[in-house]
């Protein structure tokens, strides 16, 4: 696996892939890689496909009081993982390469996708996401890009931006990968101490119970209130627990795909998770096994 750090070297490497007749798949990451990221690499691989992974801790998507400075950075280990899983090229630019002196452009996705949920809790976050993802698309010029479904709102924002701006990139969501006990894999899980890690299981459990209740027709408001109460009882400071339309993130109507999303902080660590309400059988299995 080759590692490149300048846009010129990246363009040369991708041009070689194109000269081979290969399709190019992009897996954007901020590093601190785990099995969830490797699932994206595995999904991207295929005959005639070259996989490009990016590692860039994007300062524009962190708020002033968030964890940019302490966000885990371990490029050497990440590169080994990527190579072992068949990644062809690592794009690892410095901040100065991504945002050179004089950089003055911001990409915003307006409306209901970005002013609710994490958009409300983290002002400006999705402008930073949209800006860096569009830059990655323009730099790598992939045919397809893979994103994890754990950050469902981010996936929805990227899909909207790619469609609105005619990026010509297919956006593929890959199901959330979980630990054996049900906790969604996240680079931020390393912040959890032993006690917090045990209490963090309340997040997938609460979502599972609420999804089961909503799926069998019980009032959504009561299910959401119960989920919030369960999280608070476990020691979480809850940002939101919400039932939304899976595509628009607006009001969830029966007959359309619905998604249950939550964000909550335990100690100093903010965790997010989500489940599809229609996936009642899978969610119930998690609750039975780990509840």
**Order of helix and strand elements from N to C terminus:** EHEHEHEHHHEHEHHHEEEH
> What's the total number of strands?
9
| Radius of gyration (Å) | 19 Å
Helical residue percent band: 25-40%
CATH fold annotation of the largest domain? Rossmann fold
Task: Tell me the major beta sheet.
Answer: 6 strands, parallel
Query: Shape, please?
Result: globular
Average of pLDDT: 94
What is the total domain count? 2
Beta fraction: 15-25%
User: CATH homologous superfamily of the largest domain?
Assistant: HUPs
CATH class of the largest domain: Alpha Beta
| Structure annotation, total helices | 11
How do the strands line up in the largest sheet? Answer: 1-4-3-2-5-6
Give a quick precis of the structure:
Helix content is 40%, strand content 19%. With 291 residues, the chain is of the alpha/beta class.
Overview of the molecule:
The chain has 291 residues and is α/β, with parallel strands linked by helices. The protein folds into two domains: 2-174, Rossmann fold (3-Layer(aba) Sandwich), CATH 3.40.50.620; 187-284, Pantoate-beta-alanine ligase, C-terminal domain (Pantoate--beta-alanine Ligase, Chain: A,domain 2), CATH 3.30.1300. The chain has helices at 7-19, 35-44, 75-84, 95-98, 118-121, 125-140, 152-164, 194-199, 202-215, 220-233, 280-290, and strands at residues 2-4, 23-29, 49-55, 89-91, 144-148, 170-174, 237-245, 258-266, 269-276. The strands form two sheets. Strands 1-4-3-2-5-6 form a six-stranded parallel beta sheet, with helices on both faces. A three-stranded antiparallel beta sheet has the order 7-8-9, covered by helices on one side. Strand 8 and strand 9 form a beta hairpin. Helix 9 (202-215) packs antiparallel against helix 10. The protein is globular, with a radius of gyration of 19 Å. The model is unreliable at 279-291 (pLDDT under 50). One of its GO terms (cellular component) is cytosol.
């Amino acid at each position: 696996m080759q590692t490149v750090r300048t846009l010129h070297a990246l363009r040369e490497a991708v041009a070689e892939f194109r000269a081979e007749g290969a399709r190019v798949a992009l897996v954007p990451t901020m590093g601190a890689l785990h099995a969830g990221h490797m699932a994206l690499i595995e999904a991207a691989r295929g005959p005639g496909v070259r996989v490009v992974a990016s590692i860039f801790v994007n300062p524009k998507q962190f708020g002033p009081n968030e964890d940019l400075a302490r966000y885990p950075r371990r490029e050497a280990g990440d590169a080994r993982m990527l190579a072992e899983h068949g990644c062809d090229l690592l794009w690892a630019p410095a901040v100065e390469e991504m945002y050179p002196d004089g950089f003055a452009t911001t990409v915003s996705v307006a409306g209901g996708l970005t002013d609710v949920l994490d958009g409300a809790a983290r002002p400006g976050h999705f402008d930073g996401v949209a800006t860096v993802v569009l830059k990655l698309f323009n730099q790598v010029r992939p045919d397809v890009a893979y994103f994890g479904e754990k950050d469902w709102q981010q996936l929805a924002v990227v899909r909207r931006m790619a469609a609105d701006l005619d990026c010509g990139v297919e956006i593929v969501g890959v199901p959330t990968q979980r630990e054996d006990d049900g906790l969604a894999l996240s680079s931020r899980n390393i912040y959890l101490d032993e006690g917090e890690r045990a209490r963090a299981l309340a997040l997938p459990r609460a979502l599972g119970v609420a999804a089961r209740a909503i799926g069998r027709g019980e009032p959504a408001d009561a299910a959401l209130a119960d989920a919030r109460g369960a999280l608070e009882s476990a020691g979480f400071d809850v940002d939101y627990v919400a039932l939304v339309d899976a595509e628009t993130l607006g009001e969830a109507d029966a007959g359309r795909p619905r998604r249950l999303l939550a964000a909550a902080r335990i100690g100093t660590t903010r965790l997010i998770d989500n489940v599809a309400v229609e996936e009642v059988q899978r969610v119930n299995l998690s609750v039975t096994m780990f509840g």
